[in-house]
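Please fill in the sequence for the structure shown.

STRUCTURE ENCODING:
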């Protein structure tokens, strides 16, 4: 499949797929309803994050529940909210 879409959905190109952070979190939680329940949110709210982006105040809870990093959930501005996460990510990469 050779489908390219803009920023909020999976991108397929030359057999490779790239999930957005929220899609990865939904998958890690076992589905949209399970993620919503774990976060005490409605399924509709979580679904809206696919197009509107994940609110910054929910990212740490999503990271704790699913293991999907704040860097992946908000790639454009995560460092504005969690500057210490940059140090943790760099340390983890150096240790690997």
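FILLED IN BY: designer on duty
SEQUENCE:
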């Amino acid at each position: 499949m050779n489908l390219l879409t803009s920023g909020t959905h999976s991108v397929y190109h030359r057999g490779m797929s790239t999930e957005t952070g929220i899609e990865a979190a939904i998958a890690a939680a076992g589905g949209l309803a399970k993620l919503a329940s774990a976060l005490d949110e409605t399924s509709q709210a979580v679904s809206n994050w696919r197009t509107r982006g994940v609110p910054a105040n929910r990212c740490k809870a999503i990271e704790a529940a699913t293991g999907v990093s704040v860097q992946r959930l908000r790639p454009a501005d995560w460092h504005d909210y969690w500057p210490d996460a940059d140090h943790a990510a760099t340390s983890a990469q150096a240790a690997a």
